[in-house]
Give the backbone structure.
Amino acid sequence: MERSPQELLPLTPPVFHILLSLAGEERHGYGIMQDVAQQTDGALQLGPGTLYGCLKRMLTAGLVEESEERPVTELDDERRRYYRMTAFGRRVVRAEAQRLAGAVTVAMAKLAGEKA
Amino acid sequence: MTFGFDPVGGFCRFYSVLLYAYPREFRDQFGGEMRQFFRDRCRDAARRSTLLQFALHTMTDWFRSAVRERASAIWSAGRPTAKRGFTAEWACTILVYLFVSTTIVQAYVIPTGSMEGNLLVGDHILVDRTAYADPGPLGAILPARDIERGDIIAFRFPEDPRQTYVKRVIGLPGDRIHLEDGQVIRNGRRLVEPYVQHLPTYPDPYRDGFPQHAGYGITPRGRAMLSRNIVEGEVVVPPGAIFALGDNRDNSLDSRYWGFVPRENVVGKPLVVYWSYNAATQDLLEWRIDHVLDVATHFFSKTRWDRMFLIPRSRAAEEK
């Protein structure tokens, strides 16, 4: 019943980076935002509305799920929920990374003669 | 940017209100987390003194995502609950928007050069209406503080309440004020006002030697002040009133000419210049068709980009 990852491509930049931030570990919302900012050198600053809007759609699409575990204890609070990537989410982000790599290869070839 | 109060608590309560713009289902699912997220982010921004960028970023994020969640709640309708909520939910978003635009901030344009040096003709500013709000029901949830000398205030012009003026607070109730050679003497001490701009203009004994040599241009309200509130050659600010002057001191119609600003006329505190457009005073007071065309054709060249998001600062004058 699971869909093919290709159906969800291309991913929007927020969704792509949120998935990447969850590739290594489970995180809560604020942790995701911080990691995404780090990944993109501060270019992508997720606000709460954008972040939770994306998470909602990603939960529905089965890319992420809520985790019952609480990895970071010192900052813990009942309201903090942790999210982790599903196996399907991992396939989707891989497919997206491959698609982007392909696009970059094409771009390099086409722009090879030009000065940067 | 420094605050005389801790803004984080106030911002968080404000954000809790903003959350009502989202569909109820979304709020129920993520509201708590979003508040938590907002608080963390707000503390972080306060630590790094980037609260203003943070506030602007959050407002954009809030508006876009609220509209998006509303829209997607409607698309995913079909379910009776979502259908029933359609009108109510949109009404809710609009109400929150109206609440924000009428009680929290309001947009004004600076029509005259009386604050030149700090605010230019054509600066479009957002005024924080809560800054000096009476500690009524809102006082409990929003930070408010008293008006201080040196603050820039926006107020309804006493001679014509439809106009909003922006001036600087020079005297509070009880202060004794006069001018010598264009310099303000408050309670016997000469003010050093780094924000003031003096122009090489014709001498004007009243303008520079207030309240002596009363001359032209004083309104009946201003004359009433001169006849009632002068003690030994100085104006004494009565209770519930504010003495306000323009920073462009030699070319400003202010308390010298039309009297005190009643405390209740104060609307708020200019927060940020969100757009600055180089236009004539008359064009800014009403939107005529030729002004619309002018904006349409010269938007990029006549917008003063370097003034965008400038913060008009309150500064206390040094007393000597």
